[in-house]
Write a structure and sequence with these properties.
single chain, about 110 residues, alpha+beta, five-stranded antiparallel beta sheet, 5 strands, about 25% strand, DUF2849
Length: about 110
């Protein structure tokens, strides 16, 4: 397991079996598409959380669960390019990336 540095935390990520989308483990053991909803783990807490997530993977319909080191910001920011791309969508024009802003936020921005 990766050990986070100062100002960093661990997140758990997986792929949703139904559609292949990237998901992040959040409160109550629920998986979310938005990294902002991911539970932040210390190095000591990540191991047991990973074990629980792996044990429940089939029931929760997720595969390829592993930990990701991220900066402890809001939302968390993965430290590697690979994980940043997974968290924020494809590395293409912004019109084609994932957008997780709630509908009310989108409407108020217009």
């Amino acid at each position: 397991m990766s050990r986070p540095g100062e100002g960093e935390i661990l997140l758990l990520t997986a792929s949703r079996l139904l559609d292949g989308r990237i998901v992040w483990l959040g409160e109550g053991g629920h998986w979310h598409e938005a990294i902002a909803e991911a539970t932040r783990f210390t190095y000591e807490d990540a191991g047991p959380a990973l074990e629980r997530a792996l044990a429940e993977a089939e029931q929760k319909e997720v595969v390829a669960i592993y930990e990701v080191v991220a900066k402890d910001t809001q939302p968390p920011e993965p430290v590697t390019t690979r994980e940043a791309i997974r968290a924020h969508g494809p590395s293409v024009h912004p019109d084609f990336s994932y957008d997780y802003a709630p509908v009310r936020e989108k409407e108020s921005a217009l």
